[in-house]
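Give me structure tokens for this 358-residue protein.
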Amino acid sequence: MTAHAPEPGAAGRPQPGRRSSSNADAPPSPTVDVHAHILIPEVEAVVAGLPGQAEARDLEARRNGPASLAVSGPMVRTVFPRATDVRLRLAAMDAQGVDVQLVSPSPSHYHYWADEETAEKVCRLAAEATAAHCAEAPDRLRGLGLVPLQHPQQAVRALDQALEQGLLGVEISSHAPGRELSDPAYEPFWARAAATGAILFLHPFGCTLDERLDQWYLSNTVGQPTENAVALSHLIFSGVLDRHPELKLIAAHGGGYLPTHIGRSDHAWSARSDAGANCAQLPSSYLKRLYFDSLVHDPHVLRALIGAAGPDRVLLGSDFPFDMGTEDPVGALRAARLPDADFHAVRGGNAAALLGLT
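Here you go.
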């Protein structure tokens, strides 16, 4: 694998084939995109026509609104080839200057409405399909599976199945119906993830603000950052991160609103006994235990995220191949005009260490 070494931000251009490093002769780290998706027709075939599917689709339609659905349907059909064909994926990666993608199932495959038997099939098929996809280019692709958050008792087994398939971990949403990530029922799952070193990718799907966001694609532009902030707050304030400090959790979309508004959480923790009851340290301190992708669509926000979490906690993300992503993740990172070392850390150094790439 030849590592791409694009130019840094504000501090000048590195010599070709080199990056800013304490070891000037060290090869550049690979450019790693940790937010990329696969569409899995086999999963949709399993759930087609089952009780609950129509109700789930109706809920999604209400939450998004007809105008957004009219755009999303054709968009998904357009990106489908790149989300399923490895050759097209690799060609797109080459055009972007990306060496490695961490591929996760589209969040549309969560199907948290499904019964236990169906949920087991969904997670098994998702793991198998993602592993097979990545196996076509093992030096370029790594993968994640799914767990059924609606059935916490199945979560550990689903995680183990994903790891057995050679995947690095699993993708989860911000909540399941009737359950927040702070629910004690998830304790065995967090413990197993921490013990195995599995990667957890927190990627919301949908927003419980419902019809308030059913115009102008607010369901995504406002809903996703909100869901990220709520989910991370549950993990922090409930003490999950205190009890499982070794968790390797990546939050999509830069963690939503939380990292850039963490001061309000810190103030509540300090000023109110109820806010600080289950959380051992200032909420802002936990940002340095988490990872965040760089997909915030604004160089000023990206710099603020890095300031809040640290340059070693932010990873390149594109949301490939969907329209709310970026076709040029390295260019978006370059626009933040970071110091050389931070640029290369986010471009790939941090992810290479986290994912165990050589």
